Amino acid sequence: MSEHADMNEALAALTDKLRSLNDLVTANQFMVEALARQGRILQQQDASSSRAMLRRQARARFHPETGTTPDAAVLAVLEEILGRQQESAEIIPFPVRA
């Protein structure tokens, strides 16, 4: 019985990691698409304005109640990254699920 419980725990942990990875992939895809479509506009704006614009678009798309593609976890990743006041690129950390 213990081996079965250990296997279930391991599978649950793996499932959580895969969901988190999927959230990161979706957030990354959103950013890549936004940069491809609006790169010129984003470059003309200052960093704060660009982040604000991307946050509005992320909320419009991923908000759990009003988004066109509701996904609270993806929105949380994008809010965290776009909410930072950093000027340089960084690696998005692997999110921890509650």
Protein model, in words:
- With 98 residues, the protein is an all-alpha fold.
- The chain has helices at 2-44, 47-62, 72-82.
In brief, what are we looking at here?
By secondary structure, the protein is mainly α.
> How confident overall, as mean pLDDT?
87
Strand content: under 5%
Please tell me what the overall shape is: elongated
Q: Tell me the span between the first and last alpha carbons.
A: 27 Å
The tally of beta strands, per DSSP, is 0
- The percentage helix is over 70%
Q: Which structural class fits the helix and strand makeup?
A: mainly alpha
N to C succession of SSEs: HHH
Summed up, the helix count is: 3
Low-confidence stretches: none
Radius of gyration in whole Å, from Cα?
17 Å
Largest sheet: none
SSE order and pairing:
Elements: H1 2-44, H2 47-62, H3 72-82
Helix pairs in contact: 1-2, 1-3, 2-3
Q: Which features does this protein show?
A:
98 residues; 3 helices; single chain; mainly alpha
